[in-house]
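Morning F.,

Quick status update on the modeling queue. The single chain you submitted on Monday has been processed. Sequence for confirmation:
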Amino acid sequence: MFNPELLITNKILTNIVNIEKEILLLNGSDITTQQKIKLKATSKALYIFHASHMIGYNIGLKDAEKISEGKVFDQENQSVVVLNNIRNMHEFIRSSLQDDYIDIDSSILLHMNKILLSNWKEVWEVKFRNPQLIEDTDWNDWLHLTDKTIEPLTLQDELRSAFDWYKITTQKLYPLIRIAILIYRLIQIAPFSHLNKFTIIGASDFLLRKNGYISDDYLSTFRFFDSNNSLFKDVIAKISVEYPNNLTLWVEHFTESLARELKSVSMDIQEFAKANPKQKKTFLDLNKRQLKILKYLQTIPTIKREDYVQIMEVSTMTAFRDLNDLVTKKLLKVDGRGRATRYHLANR
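Structure tokens below.
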């Protein structure tokens, strides 16, 4: 039976309080119905945008938006096919959660994996992996975090044990703590032959939505994991060496990262609600849009001008002026010309 050790620290409690506070702010956001529709559409596009970054297929926000709407523009491209499958997994999760009685289990996880592999791998490849033969090398930088001590005949038992622990602790532990620990164990088990990372992010999406942590679709789970990927890998690697079976450090970092992401979303919505083209200048005489894109480029390596237009809800000329100003101040560099022009941080 999976039985992790955990100490409920002040840091975990503080993080949970901050998360609940941000969710209240998000749920009480004073924005119009039209603004909500735009924000949700942007969040869905960011879901694909960050997924594309994870597989090394850098597309603009416009193409990400097309895929998020079900418009597959290149059916011969495997990366596009997988991104469309990610979009379909997202829709499956949303539709599944309309039934309050459905909860995460092996069958839900297996179905997500089947959706992800559709039109990309053969049907027979949707299967639990052989622990001694790890095939999942496509876009999986979590591979080294897999628990290689799991025996071939016990993998599915380990998976069931993790889900049983999650359900048994319903009355004992705060939901977010249970979610964090289950995600950790799924990363260790890596149950499938292909696309474990994206299947586990799908499971995280399911769990966070079901428990009310992704309010109104404003927070993208792919954005959350993409932004915190390096941190999460380092923490899991450290625990496996220094604190085997004690997941206190993981829960601390997971909850802190979620609080930070929700705060960022909350601030974005507040700015969106009171958007004023005549914004006051701030640090280095930059406006809030420019500061926001500098922060964003710490996660995403490059953007195009059309991405800036959509993210910031501004005209093409405003985007040109903002980006050109950042280039002039040597905060951004430019690669390419014309429609292929991309901007990235000058120190990268």
